[in-house]
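tool_log.txt
---
The assistant was asked to compare two proteins side by side. It first ran the structure predictor on the initial sequence, then on the second. Raw inputs and outputs are pasted verbatim so the downstream comparison step can read them without reformatting.
(1)
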Amino acid sequence: MTRRRQLLGILLMEKNRLDPAPFPRVRQSIQRNIDSLEAQLADLNRDIDDFFRQNSWWVDLEKALSTQTGVGHLTLLGVVAYLPELGRLNRKEVASLGGLAPFNRDSGQWRGQRHIEGGRNPLRQALYMATLSASRFDHVISAFYQRLLQKGKPFKVAIVACMRKLLTILNAMAKKLLLRRSLAPLTP
């Protein structure tokens, strides 16, 4: 997944260079790079999908978590790749690992603002777009988002809080799946 992010970044840079390129030969060179990068990305996507499909736990996890509004295939791949502990942590631990837990800036009598810090940035990136979608179309996340906005919270603060809520929901779903799998009878 890290290599996929790298290829997407390089591909975006090459596409941005294409239009302002002054000469046809330069544009052809850039286009060859774009074609090569797109082919590499397609191969890598197939490899990633094949790798995840080999593990029955990941297949079951994808089936369970894809029922959550806003969460698609790429979000699930990102969550599984960057948070393999999913389902084995409590809500505070999963929020902290995701870099979505608010940390205080207090000293003595002074009370500062709370900010998120640390954690796994690629996980936050994977959750961001899913959370934007869920904040519009999922009734639980949307109601939570609207409550935060009505309290006067800025957009980014509300979205980060919704990201934390979405991640804890996904963690609870994975935990429930783990419990169900552990209670399943063994077949000979």
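(2)
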Amino acid sequence: MLLLYATRDGHSRRIALRIADRLAESGIGASPRDLAAAPLAPAELAAAPLVALVAAVRYGRHLPEAEGFLATHRSELARAPLVLVSVSLTARKLGKDTAEGNPYLRKLIARHRLKPALAAAVAGRLDYPRYRWLDRQIIRLIMKLTGGPTDPRGSFEFTAWEAVDAIAARIAELMRQAEA
């Protein structure tokens, strides 16, 4: 299977690695690949029985490499089961942590006319010290408006790792079905 990710600060990569670890425990090999690092060969995509994409949201949109991948390979992605995992701070809130309740994930699916076998929203990490000054100020304003933490020295982990493990278990089920 293909396990791809799009990240800016590395957290989507951590989530993809956690999924890969859980899949390995189920006997399924998946090496997470950064969409920004190298283009995907069409033959790799065609040979994949399942494609999983872990994509970060930044300022209300999924990262350009995730958007570009979905736009470029829409027809190929219709052939095999597709798993979408959207990583955002919005998903830290109850109700926004589901595919139905997360506006960014709903819009991504609609924009690319996708029919994922599984779509999930996972909360990310807020790490103010790692951000550039302007990003830190913009994110602090967003957090103030949405009731989140605003301490510019703070680092806040919102990811529900048990939910990531459940996503990995569901991917393992989908892989078994795809291989059957």
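---
observation on (2): The chain has a mean pLDDT of 94. DSSP finds seven helices and eight strands in the chain.
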